[in-house]
Design brief:
7-stranded parallel beta sheet, 20 helices, binds adenosine-5'-diphosphate, binds magnesium ion
Length: 551
């Protein structure tokens, strides 16, 4: 099935899918969703690698099956770790965001059990839980699984690897016999096989291979920038992945040292590794990296040879090597031990041929991605911070003696204010840095969401430096004018009294029509196609829209 629209999903779910910008179902979703939507879908085993979209594959159809007039727990999702539990609960919440009566509870260890009990008491139809904490709550009789109709074992292989077999069996014994069990796993080791043989009734088996991940678990991304923007692009990539643990590959010792120096200056946990360092220095850096006291190692190919670390999250090619085989070698350092890894290329226009050569060598396609915007990065950092806060354990004994004073000092603030202040401590740095962050993408390479090259139309706008307009503000203005269609913008050329900008030609008319009765501060906005200036548009003053400078 090639589109979500054909799947008989509820309009509320389709709306949420639109918000999430899922364009079409991933293969596992195309296979699983229609099946799970059937009345008697039965038990199921789905084998698919990490990152193939399993959460939505079960989340969407099972949400649809929730009886929202009933507050009883109907869907239980078990996950191996609290991070995954939070992530899945968060994903399910986003899918169900328009289903007003659906409530999702995340139940995991390391957080207040009282609060979780309160949430359960208020009636959640979906429980997303780690086995340990759920069992704890079951034993305290704080939750009731007797009304479950679907049980999802997400990442079943991981759950068993972590030794949750007994907990799983204890939990399953509390659920009714006539439920469906849906087992999702990346691999099918013996213990998963045994569980499925013992508990699943004639399961339907679905195995999905995903072309861009493949057996090695590596995804390849490429960002196209101008040579002068390489470092800025690197910074954005690193900021977008708050938990990055990876190697940045450079071509020369000099470049390695420079990039590392820049990163250190910008307060990243990074150090260089290259042949100009003494043996002792190299050993020291490698040790720090192995112990994860460094999150980024900036290295030449030769110097990185002696390093054996197998849980890297990212490989970044700051500069591509001359030979495609070396790229394969570099990227092979991530995605090990069944984990997902991302190999990133920061590339300039003239690398185009090299990239095709690499694609042939790795036998996969490299996805051309757009450099993250400041907003995307801020959002990502913020949520990562909040997730970390949620899972942070509280050391009651150590913290208690200070609480009196802390409460006194905070007494004057509302709860909202306290939260905002705590978030700002960490977050202001990013907001400040990315406030006016320009678009670093090279426009020849800008692609639309389907991966095709964008065709641009060139526009004239009657605002320029005299109106104090900057490229990010111009992009923001177009976005506001067109009511958030997020149109791809290409080159921007700001002059004194006016400017030119390129925008996806598909939206030509949206842009031209958007300026009716629109004002920027006191100026009536004029936008025209730059090669066909037309004059004498009808002026109407009925529903004037005024846009203001954002600062
Ligand atoms: P898995 O559980 O298989 O490891 P996830 O369900 O976590 O994978 O999905 C991996 C990523 O893919 C998530 O970031 C998710 O938001 C995204 N994703 C899921 N379905 C789609 C889709 N149809 N189109 C685009 N992105 C998707
Ligand atoms: Mg998953």
């Amino acid at each position: 099935m090639n589109s979500f629209d054909e799947m008989n999903l509820l309009p509320d779910l389709l709306k949420a899918i639109k918000d999430l910008e899922f364009e079409k179902p991933m293969p596992v979703q195309a296979a699983v969703i229609p099946h799970l939507l059937k009345d008697d879908s039965g038990d199921m085993i789905v084998l698919a690698q990490t990152g193939t979209g399993k959460t939505a594959a079960y989340g969407l159809p099972l949400l649809q099956k929730i009886n929202t007039n009933n507050r009883k727990t109907q869907l239980l999702i078990l996950c191996p770790t609290r991070e995954l539990c939070i992530q899945v609960a968060d994903d399910i919440t986003s899918y169900g965001i328009y289903m007003k009566k659906v409530k999702v509870a995340a139940i995991f260890g390391g957080a207040s059990i009282e609060r979780q009990i309160k949430i359960l008491q208020s009636g959640a139809q979906v429980i997303c839980a780690t086995p340990g904490r759920l069992l704890d709550l079951l034993r305290r009789k704080e939750t009731d699984l007797s009304t479950i109709t679907n049980l999802v074992l997400d990442e079943a292989d991981e759950m068993l690897k972590m030794g949750f077999r007994e907990e799983l069996e204890a939990i399953m014994s509390e659920t009714p016999l006539e439920k469906n069990i849906l087992l999702f796993s990346a691999t099918m080791p013996d213990d998963v096989w045994q569980i499925s043989k013992r508990y699943l009734k004639k399961p339907l088996e679905i195995t999905i291979g995903e072309k861009n991940i493949g057996a090695d678990g590596i995804i390849h991304h490429c960002y196209m920038v101008q040579a002068k923007d390489r470092y800025l692009a690197l910074k954005r990539i690193v900021d977008y992945y708050p938990d990055i643990y990876g190697i940045v590959f450079c071509r020369t010792k000099k470049e390695t040292q420079e990039v590392a120096d820049h990163l250190m200056r910008d307060e990243y946990d990074a150090e260089p590794l290259h042949g100009d360092l003494s043996q002792a220095q190299r050993e020291h850096v490698m040790q720090k990296f192995r112990n994860k006291h460094l999150s980024l190692l900036v290295a030449t190919d030769v110097a990185a040879r002696g390093l054996d670390v197998d849980d890297l999250t990212h490989i970044i090619n700051y500069n591509l090597p001359d030979e495609a085989e070396i790229y394969t070698h570099r990227s092979g350092r991530t995605g090990r031990a069944g984990k997902k890894g991302i190999s990133i290329i920061i590339s300039i226009f003239k690398d185009k041929k090299k990239i095709s050569e690499i694609e042939r060598n790795i036998k996969k396609s490299i996805e051309i991605k757009k450099i993250f915007t400041g907003r995307e990065i801020c959002e990502r950092q913020l949520f990562s911070m909040i997730d970390k806060m949620i899972t942070t354990e509280i050391n009651e004994k150590e913290i208690n003696p200070f609480l009196d004073i802390i409460y006194k000092k905070l007494e004057w603030f509302e709860r909202d204010e306290v939260i905002k202040k705590f978030v700002s401590i960490q977050f202001n740095r990013f907001l400040e840095y990315y406030k006016n962050a320009p678009d670093l993408n090279v426009s020849e390479y800008n692609r639309d969401k389907k991966g095709g090259a964008v065709k641009y139309s060139r526009f004239f706008i009657n605002l320029g430096t005299i109106d104090k307009i900057t490229p990010p503000e111009l992009i923001g203005l177009i976005n506001d004018l067109t009511e958030k269609k997020h149109i791809t913008i290409g080159k921007i050329d700001i002059k004194r009294n006016f400017s030119f900008f390129e925008a996806d030609h598909k939206y030509r008319d949206d842009i031209l029509n958007s300026i009716e009765d629109a004002y920027f501060e006191d100026r009536k906005i004029v936008i025209e196609l730059s090669n066909e200036r037309q004059h004498g548009k009808v002026e109407k003053d009925s529903k004037r829209r005024t846009f203001h400078r954002k600062r």
